[in-house]
Amino acid sequence: MARSTTMTAAVQLTEPSQGKPIPVPGCDVCRALAGQWGQAMEAGSPAYDPSHATDLAVEIQRHPHGRHR
Questions:
Q1: pTM (2 decimals)?
Q2: In whole angstroms, what is the distance from residue 58 CA to residue 66 CA?
Q3: pLDDT tens digits, 16-59
Q4: Which of 26, 43, 61, 68 is most enclosed, with most CB atoms within 10 A?
């Protein structure tokens, strides 16, 4: 089997299109996560970390709020 010595084309990634997560009204967990998300998205903030912000948005979206999985 011949070895390839050339690289394939670069992978093109898109920006997440989730936007700002919307916490469920009255949910303290969602409100706290949304606050952390805001800090993680604020450029220049010591907590600035877009990757962590994405994780927080997913956590808010998946928070069960009493629903059965």
A1: 0.68
A2: 17
A3: 556 788 899 999 999 999 999 999 999 999 999 999 999 999 99
A4: 61
